[in-house]
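Bacterial Ig domain-containing protein
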Amino acid sequence: MRRRKLTIGLLSMMMAASVAFGIQGNDVHAASKKLSVNRVYENATRINGKTRKKNIVRVKIGKKTYKAKANKKGKFTVKIPRVAAGKKYTLKSYKGKKLYKTKKVYVIAKKLKINKYTPNSKSISGYTRPSYKVKVKIASKTYVKKASAVTGYWKVKPDNNKKIGTTVSVKVVNTKGKTVIETKKHVHDYKAVYKTVHHDEAGHYETVEAPAWDETVQRRHQVCFVCGRDKTQDFIDSINNKTYPQLPNEYFTIDDMKEQGWTEEAGWPHYNSDYAIYKEMGVNPEDMKDVPPFGMYLASGGWDGHCDGHNYGSQTVDVTVHHEATTKQVWKVDQKSYDEKVLVGYKCDCGSVKE
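Predicted structure tokens:
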């Protein structure tokens, strides 16, 4: 009887203590809620951990949710697609439909991971094992950063807002001070390479008509001092109009012509004064074989003898030169010549090229 009373007394004390500390029957389980997750490494396809037995553990990756049921000992394995270092996921443990416990999980890099950067970047970052030291050599200076104890993330910014450049050296030192990774990374800095291509002028020819026109020019002619006749021009007119003497005639025989140098083969002889006149006329001397020489004209006082016995001499005179209408081919430019810069590819200072 005494033992029974003692037992009842102990139970009463325990209930009183429970009330005093505000712990009810269900809250005993609340104090022991658990959701532990083993470390998740990059490229892992499973997340292992422990929670309340028979609970459902869910994790959302992208737009899809993956889940697994804990066994009698509370252990669970959620099958997932491969995950990348640095990613954060939230695991949720459910007791039935009621949320039981949540836990954040970070994916840890097994090896050194360097995030993408360019030579113009102002920082370089990546992931390694948590709490490892990362030594980054940029140009001639080495920067030391400690990776996050939770995520393994690290980031280095060069002094004075300098750029990273194309080549960096990275060392990873573990918590025992041993270098476990040493690498040299080169990022190509491709710059455009051009060549100059010359394009010739493009166009076409057009037929253009030039109308007839008269031009006044100055010439040295033989002029009569008495009557003012332009003897040279009168001689030229006789050729153009074919009014020069047609020899031989009754006054000037073949023998007379031969005495003046005429021959059947060569016709009349030509002298410097004749060649000067033919040049002014623009005719071929070979076509003037039947024209008596200018010297004979002067000696005769003109073909009509009008200036016979008159003195004459060389003077500058104005002469009208007639130009017949002509056509000519004129080049018309459709496109002026120009130089063009043509992209031929890209080249890095290291010598690497790409199209």
